[in-house]
Design goal:
heterodimer, A: mainly alpha, Helix Hairpins, Serum Albumin, Chain A, Domain 1, 3 domains, extended, B: alpha/beta, Rossmann fold, seven-stranded mixed beta sheet, four-stranded antiparallel beta sheet
Chain lengths: 277, 200
């Protein structure tokens, strides 16, 4: 098939051409030839041919991009990335402000007597030099925004990826799909990959040098993984990741909570977590 | 190819990606574009004025814009949505670019749009780069050229660049190409080789 149709049925209208292009099942033995259109009198020159084929290609591209970018997880991805970047900014500023405070306040530079970051920032926000005080206040207000955003991410995740959220909580679930670039990418991954998302450097060093393989990546942030006894932590991570792979597919293709699946999966994970297997 | 005192340029309207200008000519930076790097290393790979080019892996359209300055028309294939938006913006200014939003591993999906090409230029970050080139063989005129920019690190990071290169050449030969020459793009691009072939 050619985008402009066959002899006797030629046209350059984008909507008609779209159908022809999408219905092409094999590479045609004879490719498009611009002279076909000129002989039929639809165009008069080579430039006109390029203009026409361009119009069709741009029409398809604009449509395709719009469809691919408009997924319901797109907003969630941006939110969770914003959240993680805010964390980084807050930590960086907190560190700087405490150093600054230590430098101008005698008797606070000792490592073991220094108050911890967030509490010290609160103290500095009340009493410090004017600029220092303002920076500390900014950090506190950023932390407030961060807390609200975190709640929103969890809420949004429960509605966009209900099954994954039911297994590991909205925040961790959102981080998982943000790391792989979206729900459809996550749904294509096997459990073993989901298990080590976020532990890429350990994974590749394992592949390259044969050091021991990572047991968990981002899913370590889930309580049943990091609270598990050391002996069963790997098992919990493996089982959880396997169930997450199924949950991702449920979320992508069905989009609603499957209570029976979640209950069964959680029971199985809890059993391993409790030491039985 | 036009060069001004040893600097590769192309003739066209500037301001595509903040490229430097020399008079009315756009400077084509070998550190940003592999095709420019290839020209600096091997001056025989010229683009012809009447050529139809099929360009796989068009990305944001920086190299595409220079190619379009030289040749008759460029069919540019890209499958990532964000870079594709940039490519569409580039194609707005250059009327001989046909931007195709599709996956180069599935040529059937855009086969109906293509004409026979004089040059197949391929620069994709995919594991099966030789396979993609072979799949596109039907779109190359007989005697037409293939310039494949091999990203060895995309193929298999566990293999050395030389191994990947040897495997790729073998696959291209088996698939119907005649490997004419190859150039490693050091110092401009690390672990990248340009393989120039002709359709048998």
């Amino acid at each position: 098939m050619h985008w402009y149709g066959e002899a006797g049925n030629l046209s350059t209208d984008p909507a008609q051409c779209e159908e022809r292009i999408l219905n092409t099942a094999a590479i045609p033995s004879v490719l498009c030839n611009w002279e076909d259109l000129r002989e039929a009198g639809l165009i008069t020159s080579r430039e006109e041919y390029i203009r026409a084929v361009r119009e069709v290609a741009v029409f398809l591209a604009v449509k395709g991009i719009a469809a691919d970018l408009d997924t319901k997880d797109a907003a969630l991805l941006q939110m969770v990335r914003t959240l993680d970047e805010m964390d980084e900014v807050i930590n960086l500023l907190t560190e700087r402000v405490t150093d600054w405070h230590a430098a101008i306040t005698p008797g606070t530079s000792h490592k073991y007597t220094r108050a911890n970051g967030p509490r010290l920032v609160q103290k500095i926000a009340k009493s410090g030099s004017p600029s220092l005080k303002r920076v500390a206040r900014e950090i506190l207000s950023l932390s407030g925004v961060r807390t609200d955003l975190m709640k929103e991410v969890s809420r949004e995740a429960v509605s966009v990826i209900p099954n994954m959220s039911a297994l590991v909580g909205g925040l961790v679930a959102a981080r998982l799909i943000s790391r792989v670039g979206g729900l459809d990418a996550a749904a294509k991954l096997p459990g073993s990959s989901i298990q080590v998302i976020g532990a890429e450097s350990a994974l590749f060093s394992h592949i390259r040098t044969g050091s021991s393989s990572p047991k968990h990546g981002i899913i370590f942030q889930h309580r049943r993984v990091h609270n598990a006894n050391k002996e069963v932590r790997g098992k919990v991570a493996r089982q959880l990741a396997a169930k997450l792979a199924i949950a991702a597919r449920l979320d992508l293709y069905r989009g609603e909570l499957d209570a029976a699946f979640v209950e069964q999966a959680n029971a199985k994970i809890d059993k391993i977590f409790g030491g039985e297997s | 190819m036009i060069d001004i005192k040893g600097t590769l340029v192309s003739e066209g309207q500037g301001g595509v990606y903040n490229e430097r200008m020399l008079g009315n000519f756009r400077v084509w930076d070998p550190y940003r574009s592999k095709l420019a790097a290839l020209w600096y290393l091997d001056k025989t790979t010229a683009l012809g004025k009447d050529e139809v080019v099929l360009y796989l892996g068009a990305a944001n359209g920086t190299t595409v814009s220079h190619v379009a300055d030289y040749v008759e028309s460029v069919y540019a294939v890209e499958f990532a949505p964000r870079p594709m938006e940039d490519l569409l913006a580039v194609a707005k200014k250059r009327k001989n670019i046909v931007p195709i939003y599709a996956d180069a591993t599935r040529p059937v999906r855009y086969a109906a749009l293509l004409e026979p090409a004089d040059l197949l230029y391929q620069d994709v970050a995919q594991p099966d780069q030789a396979g993609i080139a072979v799949k596109h063989l039907p779109f190359v005129k007989s005697g037409g050229r293939l310039i494949l920019m091999l990203k060895t690190r995309s193929v298999d990071i566990r293999k050395s660049a030389d191994e990947v290169f040897a495997d790729t050449c073998e696959e291209l030969t088996a698939g119907g190409y005649l490997v004419e020459k190859s150039v490693w793009l050091d110092p401009y691009h690390k672990d990248h080789a340009a393989i120039v072939c002709r359709k048998r």
